[in-house]
């Protein structure tokens, strides 16, 4: 009896679901660790006492704190290229191409976007609180959650002629135009920073990415909104990991159930085989006695009870559901297809024939 096989599709689905679940769980644990760090992070007031607090702290460093203040440049600010009089400390210029691409599966045109050009400019800046106390912000482009205000947005419509239209239908791409945007973190905007706070040798407070690998945040939203957003993301990753873990468990359950059913079939076949062997051993004993008697009397053995396949063994099987008694168990096992030799009806099960 060959071993129970795992089909290729089942193995692929099982491996994929477990791998994706493991990846989602890893992301969830990482996000959960960030949420726990945010919950434990102290919220400090940016005032004149903050430097004194850092001065008495061991190492003059607080590894993970929350601080809020107004954005002020340390030198000349950045000026908008499109909005006169608008200044900031971080500027992002982006040019994106929009076009329609033909989807042969859905038979529709779908919108596609591609970044043609992107440039980010930044100048040193600090967060200013009460009493003109300030904290210099280091590496702002490495921070997460830095969503800037869109101060300019203009869409340049594409123009094309008749030959361009023909080429678009042949290539399956129709340009819509180019979107030009400018984003800026303005001077005076309220910014919440979460990171490592240190006191430099010249008594300058600095906020930088945590050296222990924790996530660094700069956001224009308040701290509570940031914390709730991170908790929501953690829940999403947890749900995704659970869904794929349940899918993998369902596949494992299905494989185990199928394997159990195959074992039940093996056990039934083995029990049936032993039953037929027992009956065959009894029949051979009776047949030997009858054969000796027939040999002694010189008469030929009758064949009306012989198997219709081998014509040697007695009929010992009842084939169901048709109910024909026509073969021995050895010939039943040797049938290429489970069909009755007499009526060609499918054999659902077989039971031994008991002759009194």
From TrEMBL:
Kindly state which keywords UniProt assigns to this record, in alphabetical order.
Answer: Membrane, Metal-binding, Mitochondrion, Mitochondrion outer membrane, Transferase, Transmembrane, Transmembrane helix, Ubl conjugation pathway, Zinc, Zinc-finger
What Gene Ontology cellular-component terms does the record carry?
A: mitochondrial outer membrane
User: Superkingdom, according to UniProt?
Assistant: Eukaryota
Boundaries of every RING-type domain copy:
307-344
A biological process term (GO) from this entry: protein ubiquitination
Whether Repressor counts among this entry's keywords is no
Q: Which Pfam families match?
A: GIDE, zf-C3HC4_3
Write one Gene Ontology MF term.
zinc ion binding
- Where do transmembrane segments lie in this chain? 12-28, 235-256
Primary residence: mitochondrion
Q: Where in the cell is it found?
A: Mitochondrion outer membrane
Q: What is its EC number?
A: 2.3.2.27
Bilayer topology term: Multi-pass membrane protein
EC primary class: transferase
Q: What PANTHER family does the entry give? A: MITOCHONDRIAL UBIQUITIN LIGASE ACTIVATOR OF NFKB 1, RING-TYPE E3 UBIQUITIN TRANSFERASE
Q: What is this protein called?
A: RING-type E3 ubiquitin transferase
Q: Which organism is it from?
A: Oncorhynchus tshawytscha
């Amino acid at each position: 009896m060959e071993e129970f096989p795992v089909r290729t599709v089942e193995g692929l689905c099982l491996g994929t679901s477990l791998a994706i679940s493991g990846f989602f769980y890893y992301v969830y644990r990482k996000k959960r660790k960030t949420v726990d760090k945010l919950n434990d992070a102290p919220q400090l007031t940016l005032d004149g006492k903050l430097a004194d607090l850092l001065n008495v702290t061991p190492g003059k460093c607080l590894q993970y704190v929350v601080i809020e203040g107004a954005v002020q440049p340390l030198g000349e600010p950045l000026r908008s290229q499109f909005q006169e009089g608008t200044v900031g400390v971080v500027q992002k210029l982006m040019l994106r191409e929009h076009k329609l691409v033909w989807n042969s599966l859905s038979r529709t045109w779908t919108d596609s976007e591609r970044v043609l050009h992107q440039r980010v400019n930044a100048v040193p800046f600090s967060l200013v609180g009460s009493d003109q106390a300030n904290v210099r912000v280091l590496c702002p482009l490495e921070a997460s959650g830095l969503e800037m205000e869109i101060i300019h947005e203009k869409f340049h419509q594409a123009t094309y002629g008749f030959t361009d239209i023909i080429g678009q239908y042949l290539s399956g791409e129709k340009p819509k135009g180019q979107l030009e945007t400018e984003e800026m973190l303005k001077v005076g905007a309220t910014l919440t920073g979460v990171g490592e706070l240190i006191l430099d040798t010249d008594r300058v407070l600095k906020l930088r990415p945590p050296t222990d690998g924790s996530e660094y945040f700069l956001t224009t939203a308040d701290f509570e909104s940031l914390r709730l957003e991170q908790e929501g993301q953690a829940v999403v990753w947890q749900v995704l990991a659970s869904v794929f873990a349940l899918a993998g468990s369902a596949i494992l359950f299905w494989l185990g159930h199928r394997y159990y059913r195959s074992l039940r079939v093996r056990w039934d076949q083995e029990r049936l085989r032993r039953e037929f062997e027992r009956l065959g051993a009894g029949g051979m004993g009776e047949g030997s006695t009858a054969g000796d008697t027939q040999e002694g009397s010189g008469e030929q053995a009758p064949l009306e009870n012989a198997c219709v396949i081998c014509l040697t063994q007695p009929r010992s099987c009842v084939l169901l559901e048709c109910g024909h008694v026509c073969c021995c168990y050895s010939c039943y096992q040797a049938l290429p297809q489970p069909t009755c030799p007499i009526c060609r009806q499918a054999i659902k099960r077989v039971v031994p024939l008991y002759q009194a």
